[in-house]
Amino acid sequence: MAVSTAAPAAAKLRITEIFASVQGESTRVGLPTVFVRLTGCPLRCVWCDTAYAFQGGEGRDVASVLEEVASHGLRHVCVTGGEPLSQKSCPALLTALCDAGHSVSLETSGALDISAVDPRVSRIMDLKAPGSGEEARNRYENIPFLNAADEVKIVLADATDYEWAKACIAEHALTRRCAVLLSPVAGNLEPADLAEWIVRDRLPVRFQLQLHKILWNDARGR
Ligand code: SF4
User: Fold this and answer.
1) Cofactor comment in the record (predicted)?
2) Range of the structural domain that residue 45 is part of
3) Does residue 184 belong to any structural domain of this protein?
């Protein structure tokens, strides 16, 4: 595995926003967390809720991002996007955050290579179901790099997506590798239906709702 050991403070990034909130997803749900949202994504999931991060942003170096993160006084940091790994300095940022003593998670689309990510980082990797419109972008070569500290997240728009997820989990033995999270697309799939299917099928996954949508209706910066 190619691991980035250097974390140059001057490495450049494009940042959409940095803010403190509670973690809305993953097994870290509910933990006070600083979010660092990197700008840009090469995908266009039809249900994307962060399209505002596709463009714009502010040019920052790693040192200034570290300083702002530190100002929030929180241990947990989530690097998200967009697709953070679409920026070549993202691995350097992740390493620098780990070196600064943070507990770091990375939210990534599953379309880009995760092998250069610092092994101290918990990778929350999407697999895109057909209803996203981006199923063809799944980089299945990433799966062997996942370990017990990582998580796979599959967002489901309908019953077809659920059946796809079940088959994908079985084919790649995902639940033996790491936690698997299934979420309904808000407004498309009734959460109670998904919960019932999971119990009916005795699927060893974790059902999740996006806490930040329940609390703040997806307001930016919350
Ligand atoms: S990968 Fe994430 S940020 Fe990119 S389009 Fe899909 S949901 Fe949006």
Assistant:
1) Binds 1 S-adenosyl-L-methionine per subunit.
2) 12-216
3) yes
Low-confidence ranges of the chain (pLDDT < 50): 1-5
Among 159, 162, 38, smallest CA distance to 93 is for 38
Q: What's the rounded Cα separation, in Å, for the pair 103 and 91?
A: 15
Question: The dihedral of CA 191, 193, 199, 201: what is its sign?
Answer: negative
| Residue-wise pLDDT tens digits, 162-176 | 999 999 999 999 999
Alpha carbon of 43 to ligand 1 centroid (Å)? 6
In 87-167, beta strands by DSSP E = 103-108, 122-126, 151-156
Is 93 a domain residue? yes
User: Is the CB–ligand 1 distance for residue 180 below 6 Å?
Assistant: no
The pTM of the whole model exceeds 0.85 = yes
